[in-house]
């Protein structure tokens, strides 16, 4: 933890008292039991006398969380270069309705209304570990349009109303590209209600995308040698089922099974027309002007039907590599629940927009410290990544 603090805080915090508070807060997140309230954090690092100072540091201080996240991304790029950026949704249950961004949503898997905040984290993910480097809190329309709510929650003027899909994309596009870190494939393991718009955004930014899609999603087969070509839109499940005889086994590491656990899936890939719309289709991709990608279908064990479907713009990337990238979403979901839970990613109890972002930034640093220590990584130094060559593999462009 001391090496990580030394790499990040002096470069991002101008005053010595801010650097001291930042280190206290992160150490408290790592040490405090239970919910990571400011009171418990203060008690774990110095006693009640520090509570007011830490509260002020999170809710009222003026330090910039964006530069801190950029420095964290650079540090992790040095010590654990990622294979992909995984966008992980995070629901934060709330009992009241005053915390910034709280909304009522119907959750289909629960069959009921859920009250809480919804955020998207961008995680640097590799085969061994993952850690969050950026966050975006979704702001529903009532929070953006209500001037009194904006004032009380200290929502900045530049915050605008957006859909969940726009929020997830912006978590990557508006910050990560501006930081200039080497570009990597983006994995959206939670899927998207508007896959076409999501594909269009990432293609326009030049970022390879791998997104989980439902089996009922309609797509058109682009390979004239395969069943379904020329039949128009067919469901992803029907397309994959029609070529099940072409399945091949692919091994992948399962973080949920313990260190060194390797599993195998049967996988097939079909070239399809990407679900984009509008004039952008005429610019590139294929002989008829329509961009193509791959639809992956996966069977686990002895299952008769495919268990998962993934759509990717990386048409020329080998299928085993694509499946292993997809499995990073599972690693991130596990790490978000375990190490993220231990350091209090969901535990901010204040109501302000700025306070939420400062807390989750420091909680991300605590999460990175935890995962790096567990993996036995030798600490590196931040600030060396800015000149790295672009890491985007030409095959996935």
Account of the 3D structure:
The chain is α+β, with helices and mostly antiparallel strands. The chain is 38% helix and 21% strand. It has 13 helices and twelve strands. Strands 1, 2, 3, 4, 5, 6, 7, 8, 9, 10, 11 and 12 form a twelve-stranded mixed β-sheet that branches. A hairpin with a 7-residue loop joins strand 11 (292-300) and strand 12 (308-312). The two termini are 37 Å apart. The model is unreliable at 278-287 and 378-397 (pLDDT under 50).
How do the strands and helices of this protein lay out in sequence?
Elements: H1 2-12, H2 16-31, H3 38-45, H4 51-59, H5 65-79, E1 84-93, E2 103-107, E3 112-125, E4 130-137, H6 141-145, H7 147-153, H8 164-179, E5 186-188, H9 195-205, E6 209-213, E7 218-221, E8 233-235, H10 236-241, E9 248-253, E10 262-273, E11 292-300, E12 308-312, H11 319-337, H12 339-342, H13 353-375
Helix pairs in contact: 1-2, 1-5, 2-3, 2-13, 5-13, 8-9
Q: Short description, anyone?
A:
The chain has helices at residues 2-12, 16-31, 38-45, 51-59, 65-79, 141-145, 147-153, 164-179, 195-205, 236-241, 319-337, 339-342, 353-375; strands at residues 84-93, 103-107, 112-125, 130-137, 186-188, 209-213, 218-221, 233-235, 248-253, 262-273, 292-300, 308-312. The chain has 397 residues and is an alpha+beta fold.
Number of strands: 12
Number of helices: 13
Strand content: 15-25%
Q: Bin the helical content.
A: 25-40%
Oligomer: single chain
What is the general shape? globular
Most strands sheet: 12 strands, mixed
> What is the mean pLDDT?
86
Counting helices, strands and paired strands, the structural category is: alpha+beta
Radius of gyration: 22 Å
Order of helices and strands: HHHHHEEEEHHHEHEEEHEEEEHHH
pLDDT < 50 stretches: 278-287, 378-397
Ends distance: 37 Å
